[in-house]
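Suppose you are handed only two things: the residues of a chain and a line of SMILES describing flavin-adenine dinucleotide. What would the bound structure be? This form records exactly that question and the answer produced for it, so the two can be stored side by side and reused later without any lookup.

QUESTION INPUTS
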Amino acid sequence: MRISIIGAGPAGSYAALLIVKQGHEVHVFEDHDEIGNPVQCTGIVTHGLWNLVPKDDSIIRTELSQVKIHAPDGSTMAVKLHEFVLDRAGLDKYIARLAQEAGAKYHLGHRFIGFAENGVRVRNKGKELIIPTDITIGADGPNSEVAKAAGIWTPRKVWGGVQATIRGNYAPDTFDVFFGKEFEGFFGWAVPESKSVARVGIASQHKAREMFHRITKRYPGTLIGWQSGPIPIYDRKVPVQNKRRTVFLVGDAAGLVKATTGGGIITGMVSSRILADCIKNRKNYARALKPLRRDLALHRLMRRTMNTFTEADYNKLIRCMSNPRIHKLLMDNPRDFPSRFIARLFFVEPRLLLFAKNFIKQLLLPRNEVSYG
Ligand SMILES: Cc1cc2nc3c(=O)[nH]c(=O)nc-3n(C[C@H](O)[C@H](O)[C@H](O)COP(=O)(O)OP(=O)(O)OC[C@H]3O[C@@H](n4cnc5c(N)ncnc54)[C@H](O)[C@@H]3O)c2cc1C
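ANSWER OUTPUT
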């Protein structure tokens, strides 16, 4: 089959890699002239990434061994983990290279503009081309033009993520997160990429400018760059395929992002792996996504629960995190897939049951009353 993939981010290139290996003719169309640029990402991934692609040290900026959680009362708690800060443009280029080596054809500077009969329309240097296509994969990010042109777009809620790159002195194995009213609805972060540079940012639905100002005040080094971009809030109602099953969405285009952290690299690539398997075995992609959706729904519920917390609740939660058995559980289980360990979390730290009431209340809340701060 002739497969057109729109977007050469991690989800698009990973789909290209897996599908071209099945013997299909795969073309990837990327709007920008260079893969991976501009960057709109902090680039933290769990070690789960290396279950998807072989580990490549050249794209790792630093390895993290702990997260320092800052409670609203000013106390801090360090939790051990093993995660990676990537050169995000490097990651996109790396997966694209794997896909190209496997036979996928890349067309940079080619923007998808719509569908034609039996094909897709792309624009390159002002010229419109029609590409014969059997299956189109929209991996074109949170504002997916593919979804819109295929008639499967639904309005989505997003957080605005804003991040500065700041020169200063940092511990290269530790990242900081800040919770509470100051960073209402999400959290603030400072993630080192080396001893001397960190990515410092926030995400918010309404107060991005204020919060960004607050977080950067905590890191008064030299600002050397900044990035911003929308982070889709996971919604199970977002369609992922058209009725004829000729158009599919993966990654941010389908809103498949963890609502606890805004991370979507791994979950997006997992959606591509599921789609590749569905194409190979003629399975229903929307149905096959269910296990991933279950985890994303859990992330969303955890986010909603946290958004009901008072400052005192946050302080209590962060104290619960001091339990070494929680650290071990989080070390052993990548936090991408909480369904694998959430029940055990309550078992090893029963004080977390204090928050069960908020959790159940959110679970039962009618859809139109859900808020993300
Ligand atoms: C500030 C911020 C920080 C983040 N930090 C993290 C993090 O630390 N860890 C993490 O896992 N996730 C993070 N994310 C989320 C992560 O960046 C996304 O989930 C991830 O990039 C999604 O990958 P994707 O391949 O689906 O889409 P994208 O990476 O958005 O790729 C889409 C590609 O499609 C191309 N494109 C778009 N429209 C067209 C078109 N019409 N024609 C052709 N090409 C097109 C774009 O140029 C782009 O290359 C962050 C996001 C933001 C905004």
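WHAT STANDS OUT: The chain has three domains: 2-40+88-154+237-296, 61-86+157-232, 300-369. The mean pLDDT is 93.
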